[in-house]
Amino acid sequence: MSTEFTKDPGLLIEERRDYTANTLRRKELASDPFTQFTQWLQDARDAKLKDATAMMLSTADAQGQPHSRVVLLKHFDTEGFSWYTFQESDKARQLAANPKASLLFYWSALERQVRIEGTVEKLDPADAEIYFQSRPEGSRFSAAASIQSSPIANREVLEHRVAELHQQHPNGNVPRPDAWGGYRIRPQRLEFWQGRADRLHDRFIYQAGDDHQNWSIQRISP
Asked: Which residues does the record give as FMN binding sites (predicted)?
């Protein structure tokens, strides 16, 4: 028995729109990518975009298989861009095998995206402790109850773990799990993309020098 597949026009995706929100010129760029990113992130916040700090984190395992997920940027400086997670999760194992990653920020309403590529390192546990204790109580209990990425029978198991922790720590001071910590990507390359009309987008690459202080800037084709 053979099966014949035909193209269904109803399944074709032809969703297009033009990008006319803004422009990006070389003379407008900051000399370093961190200053430029600060400005763009502030623009996203000023526009009251939801989840302005959401970023796609992509890693690759030892077999070279890519994996992507959305996480939240928690802080950044000239050293790099940081987030927190369970350090025995799938992404943590992938980073242990291959400590290189990329981040992608996409602000649709501003027709902008930023790509960041570099090497990843763990943050000091003291930094993780400070951030963990600053989180809302519910988030702290959930993090303490969940062994991220591990198989689980059902949601009730998780809810039972959270309830047990509340009984053990009625004052709300649940301790940070030893395996819960932070990562920082030290960027080697960043791309700032501004959507433009007729798909003639503006794209600029910042490339790190050997000292990670002097950055070259290059416009590239859309």
From this structure: 69-74, 84-85, 91, 113, 148-149, 193, 203
